[in-house]
């Protein structure tokens, strides 16, 4: 088992041995985060990088399956505004809304 300091060292060095382990749904030491927290963190990352709708759908499903409520998932958007900026969150909001089954067209009708 690689501890967190080794992971940081290998990432800092861009070590190819670690690169293969970081691709995909499981990450080294992911057991340090419970599945719900991991899913919410990944949703925050999608906001930061401008994720696509299918990515939001898959990750929102994972978060809900792990026990996250829709309110907690939306709270992720609010929590990252100061870090990623309002434009990123505004771009992400309709994608996440659709992923949660919210009719975004209804928002414009009100």
Q: Say what oligomer this is.
A: single chain
Largest sheet: none
Question: Termini separation (Å)?
Answer: 54 Å
Number of helices, where a helix is a run of at least 4 consecutive DSSP H or I residues = 7
> What do the pLDDT scores average to?
85
List keywords for this structure.
mainly alpha; 72% helix; single chain; 110 residues
Q: What can you tell me about this protein's structure?
A:
The protein has 110 residues and is mostly helical. It folds into two domains: 1-32, no CATH class; 33-109, no CATH class. It is 72% helix and 0% strand. The mean pLDDT is 85.
Characterize this entry briefly.
This protein is an all-alpha fold and 110 residues long. The chain is 72% helix and 0% strand.
SSE inventory with pairings:
Elements: H1 4-12, H2 16-22, H3 35-49, H4 53-65, H5 70-84, H6 86-99, H7 104-109
Helix pairs in contact: 3-4, 3-5, 3-6, 4-6, 5-6
């Amino acid at each position: 088992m690689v501890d967190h300091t080794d992971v940081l060292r290998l990432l800092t060095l861009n070590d190819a041995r670690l690169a293969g382990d970081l691709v995909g749904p499981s990450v080294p030491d992911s057991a340090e985060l419970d599945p719900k927290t991991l899913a919410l963190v990944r949703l925050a990352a999608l906001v930061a990088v401008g994720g696509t709708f299918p990515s939001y759908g898959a990750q929102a499903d994972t978060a809900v399956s792990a026990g996250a409520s829709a309110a907690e998932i939306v709270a992720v958007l609010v929590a990252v505004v100061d870090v990623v900026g309002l434009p990123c969150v505004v771009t992400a909001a309709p994608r996440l809304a659709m992923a949660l089954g919210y009719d975004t067209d209804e928002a414009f009708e009100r």
